[in-house]
Design a protein that fits this description.
CATH architecture of the largest domain: 3-Layer(aba) Sandwich
Distance between the termini: 51 Å
Number of strands: 11
Largest sheet: 6 strands, mixed
Order of helices and strands: EHHHEEHEEHHEHEEEHEHEH
Number of domains: 2
Number of helices: 10
CATH superfamily of the largest domain: von Willebrand factor, type A domain
């Protein structure tokens, strides 16, 4: 709280002086009533008697509030104006049936969704988009500033909408299509997959070469554990999947080469904790540059003091002209 005209507050020093002279004058106006015995006056005090003793204090409070209002109190706070050099980020997520493998709880896809949403929450200034791929690839969400929209798309990802397979090169190429015209100084792709490239018209290395030409970094993430795990074998007529135990393999060399060609980095996620640490690492590697300018905002608050003064004055008048009214005969 600050005051625009604080010199008015000096008038508060006069209030105790005025109270002193008022009480001195009021004692001179008191009428003495003589009675034969003191016991005659016992038990006659009511709330009216007590109220008359303190009601004059309401007027002094009103005067003090008016003086404070004259000093123009203001509330102040700081407002930050943010200027961010944002990064354009495309998430390329594998939605092939193998992403339902149960070496992650409940499965690889669900954990990938949760971690991606958490990553988005940590990047409030960046534009983000989403590409999904299996045997083919398509854009689920173009680059956007709206966190709620892209998070909703990620939550609703499902396996089985694309033909079976793993077209890593197509996933990268589709993401690059959204970044090629971007004016952002920093552009990255985060690729999450659990399989070997076996489909698509563009190979992962060809897509990586295009990314290098466009100055787009690719962070590749191989998710899942190797060995014998419970994985989808085929899709039933009702849309559900039948699971069998089978051995899973990763082409880590290809994913590492794609990342290296584009200036990115390859990560291996064998557990949900690994995936979380990977997102944290990417978040540290790709920092958004933010400049803040602090602005000072102020709002007058004298109206509240005037309102309180008016209410107290009205209350005092109602008492004086109501139950505390003195009738002179």
């Amino acid at each position: 709280m600050s005051f625009v005209q604080p010199f008015w507050l000096l008038l508060l020093l006069l209030v105790p002086v005025l109270i002193y002279f008022y009480r001195k004058a009021s004692k001179a106006r008191h009428v003495t009533l003589q009675v034969s015995r003191q016991e005659a006056m016992r038990g006659v005090k009511t709330w009216v008697v007590y109220a008359r003793n303190w009601i004059h204090w309401l007027r002094w409070v009103v005067i003090a509030l008016l003086i404070i209002a004259m000093a123009r109190p203001q509330s102040s706070w700081h407002e930050e104006k943010v200027e961010a050099e944002a990064i354009d980020i495309m998430l390329a997520m594998d939605v092939s049936p193998s992403m339902l493998t149960k070496d992650f709880a409940p499965d690889r896809l669900t954990v990938s969704q949760d971690m991606a949403i958490d990553f988005i929450n940590k990047r409030p200034y960046d534009r983000m988009g989403l590409v999904v791929f299996s045997g083919g690839a398509f854009t689920q969400c173009p680059l956007t500033d709206d966190r709620r929209i892209i998070q909703a798309f990620i939550k609703n990802l499902q396996v089985g909408r694309l033909k079976d397979g793993t077209a890593i090169g197509m996933g990268i190429a589709t993401a690059l299509n959204h970044l090629k015209d971007s004016e952002s100084q920093s552009k990255i792709i985060i690729l999450i997959t659990d399989g070997e490239d076996n489909a698509g018209a563009i190979t992962p290395l060809e897509a990586a070469a295009i990314a290098k030409a466009l100055q787009v970094k690719i962070y590749t993430v191989g998710i899942g554990s190797e060995g014998v795990v419970e994985s989808p074998a085929y899709q039933r007529p009702d849309g559900s999947f039948a699971f069998v135990a089978r051995e899973m393999h990763f082409d880590t060399g290809l994913l590492s080469q794609v990342a290296e060609m584009s200036g990115g980095k390859f990560f291996r996620a064998r557990t949900p904790d690994d995936l979380k640490e990977i997102y944290d690492s990417i978040e540290q590697l790709e920092k958004t540059k933010v400049k803040t300018t602090v602005l000072l905002r102020s709002t007058d608050q004298f109206f509240w003091f005037l309102t309180m003064a008016f209410c107290l004055l009205l209350f005092e008048m109602l008492l004086r002209w109501g139950p505390l009214r003195v009738i002179t005969v």
